[in-house]
Design brief:
The chain is mainly alpha-helical. It contains 21 helices and no strands.
């Protein structure tokens, strides 16, 4: 009888290494939102068209999503610290390039390169955390801290961008990354361990699979973007079909390869598949509701973008607190109960938004209260599901597993904003068409139906009291759209909670990694 020794506990070096890893994570998240307030200034200085501005804002996230899986697998094969440090150096150099861009084409190229560099950082950082913290309780807390850095960076991005624009030119929002990446390059070799899988375990990097995954993900994400901007149509359908077709070829290739880019066997591990599906659906509901809520605060209550963002800070603060509390909860209760309880709380929060969106005289505080519960219920779950994904994969596949976790969150974010946003817009258009006041011409009504912003522009060209009537009808229609989306989100989250409890019912804090090891042993026997 053999007695397995307990894994070594992390020491001071590992915790300092975690602190170093949280900084670039916060910067990456910040880069996703920091341009929201800088967009008008950049557009004016570089004379950007509307289409060019959208590419500046979106291409960063597109290429992060497209390259995540490839870069995560590359780190598994060539060394996670090496890929992390190369990505950090590239991110710093390209950030300077973006800060001093003199044309639309240059800035779009810089944002694209930042996306590629960012894709090397995220899965490598998470995989290194899995390597550094072998004790499950310590790893769960480390992942929670890492997720907190991401949440904080994403929330503070617009606020920091606004403060920098008060004193500096728009390029300063890109230069934030330079000292952070320099610190990572200086301290990373001392504090972060190098880790790569044995060559016999992962084989050579498959560039054909990497290209297929890139085309599939970018096609699907772009289709979702087109739906969010223009609604369903031949264009989005065409890109979606291309993405699905290439994705099918990718999956078929992975099944045939002895050493695939993505190990599809991981999806047979209940904790892995349950965590990925739960994370995707939770982010889906949060993203769509948050998008409409921010517009609701501005359109129905006249708040500025900055003030609307400040209203959400209590939710962010409670979300961070809940995320840091998750490891303690996970150590005392099964993951199924923690995930189910968090999603149920989030569903209650979404349901509380419905009266505000249905036109009840509740004021913004009621809607923000509901959103706070929604946000507080979901953000801790994201930390736990990410930890479940990483823990469910064999150690040599941690980079690829981390990339899949982040890709699922990106997919949920894109789909939530596109599909739930489109649902809210459909309700808005239907309600406005039925309740628009007499005297609004067809052209003005068409512009008003395009968006709540279109209604504001159309009202400026109309006489009173028609203009006031159109604005009142538009605000009422938009709040009806918010109520519909919030109600759908509440039902979706309750269903996701039930699904998570069912799929995770046999997973405990003590044995949740055993299934992955069993699956890996089975694959080793098949290869032999």
């Amino acid at each position: 009888m053999t007695i397995e020794s307990a894994p070594p506990r992390a020491g001071r070096r590992e915790w300092w290494g975690l602190a170093v890893l949280t900084l670039p994570t916060a910067v990456l998240a910040m880069d996703m939102t920091v341009l929201h307030l800088a967009a008008p200034t950049i557009s004016g200085d570089l004379s950007l068209t509307g289409g060019e501005l959208l590419w500046v804002l979106d291409i960063y996230g597109f290429l992060i999503a497209g390259f995540l899986v490839s870069m995560g697998t590359l780190g598994d094969r060539t060394g996670r610290r090496r890929v992390l440090l190369i990505g950090a150096a590239a991110f710093a150099v390209v950030s300077v390039f973006a800060a001093y861009a003199q044309s639309a084409e240059t800035l779009i190229l810089a944002r694209a390169l930042l996306g590629v560099a960012g894709a090397t950082l995220m899965p490598s950082a998470l995989a290194l955390i899995a390597t550094m913290f072998a004790v499950p309780a310590q790893r769960t807390f480390a992942v929670a801290v890492w997720m907190t850095a991401f949440i904080t960076g994403e929330a503070l991005g617009p606020l920091i961008g606004g403060m920098l624009l008060e004193f500096f030119w728009w390029g300063s929002v890109f230069l934030i990354a330079v000292p952070v990446m320099a610190l990572l390059l200086l301290t990373g070799p001392r504090l972060l361990p190098e880790h790569r899988a044995a060559q016999r375990s992962v084989g050579r990097f498959d560039f054909i699979s990497a290209a297929l995954s890139l085309v599939a993900v970018l096609s699907l994400v772009y289709a979702v973007k087109l739906v969010s901007e223009h609604g369903p149509g031949p264009g989005p359908l065409g890109f979606a079909l291309v993405g699905v077709a290439v994705g099918a070829v990718f999956v078929r290739r992975q099944k045939r390869l002895a050493e695939p880019l993505v190990d599809l066997g991981l999806f047979r591990v209940p904790a892995f598949s349950a965590a990925l599906s739960t994370q995707t659906l939770a982010v889906f509901g949060l993203a769509g509701t948050q998008l409409l809520l921010m517009q609701y605060l501005q359109s129905a209550h006249g708040l500025s973008p900055l003030h609307a963002g400040l209203w959400t800070l209590p939710a962010v603060a409670l979300g961070i607190g809940g995320t840091l509390l998750t490891p303690r909860l996970a150590s005392r209760a099964r993951p199924a109960m923690v995930v189910g309880s968090g999603l149920t709380l989030a569903a209650v929060g979404a349901a509380l938004i419905v009266p505000a969106g249905a036109g009840a005289q509740t004021g913004p505080a009621w809607a923000i209260g509901g959103f706070t519960l929604l946000y507080t219920g979901i953000t801790p779950i994201l930390a736990l599901t990410t930890d479940l994904v990483v823990d469910s994969a064999p150690s040599e596949r941690a980079g690829a597993a981390s990339a899949l976790a982040e890709s699922s969150a990106e997919l949920g974010l894109s789909l939530g904003m596109a599909l739930l946003g489109s649902l809210g817009l459909a309700v808005y258009r239907w309600q406005l068409s039925d309740h628009a006041p007499d005297g609004v011409g067809d052209s003005a009504l068409d512009e008003a139906r395009s968006s709540i912003g279109g209604a504001l522009r159309a009202a400026e060209e109309l006489p009173e009291p028609v203009a006031s009537g159109l604005l009142a009808a538009a605000r009422e229609a938009f709040t009806s759209g918010l109520a519909t989306v919030a109600g759908v989100t509440a039902v979706l989250l309750l269903g996701t909670a039930a699904l998570a409890v069912f799929m995770l019912r046999h997973v405990s804090s003590a044995d949740r990694g055993e299934a992955a090891e069993d699956e890996e042993e089975k694959r080793e026997r098949e290869r032999a």
